[in-house]
Amino acid sequence: MVLYGSNNGQLMTYSSLLVIILTPVILCLKNHSAINNISFAKLFLASSFGIMMISKSIPYQYLAWLFLTIAEIILVTKQGVYIANNSPSSHRGRISGVLSTIQGTGLMPASLITGALIQCYG
């Protein structure tokens, strides 16, 4: 079963509610180092994408989006902290700007490639 139509809206609403509910919970949990938090987030991302690839059933998609949302919350709240703590104060702005540019440049072709894969494989 492929997710089309109203299910996409339901998943987006589900993710939005998860962000509102889980952000304070995740931020109140025991503080690990920034690198550990980023590692946890990457593990959640990998498991989320793995679940999405393996199973097309709706309950598993909701589980995958739960993991995806947790990873996004951790990355948004902890990635900047890691960069700020591990770069010289005179270069923080430059490093953040360059990293944002690199991430944006990497994301540009991702939409094209994803669209081509969807057209080829459905």
Please characterize this protein's 3D structure:
The protein is an all-alpha fold. 84% of the residues lie in helices and 0% in strands. The longest helix is centred in the C-terminal third of the chain and has 30 residues. The protein starts with 5 loop residues before the first helix and ends with a helix.
Q: What is the overall silhouette?
A: globular
What's the end-to-end separation, in Å?
12 Å
Number of strands: 0
Q: What's the mean pLDDT score?
A: 85
Kindly provide the radius of gyration, computed on alpha-carbon positions and rounded to a whole number of angstroms: 17 Å
Number of helices: 4
Spans of at least 5 consecutive residues whose pLDDT stays below 50 are: 1-5
Give the helix level as a range of percent: over 70%
Computed structural class = mainly alpha
Succession of helices and strands: HHHH
Tell me about the biggest sheet?
A: none
Please indicate the percent range of residues in DSSP E strands (runs of 2 or more): under 5%
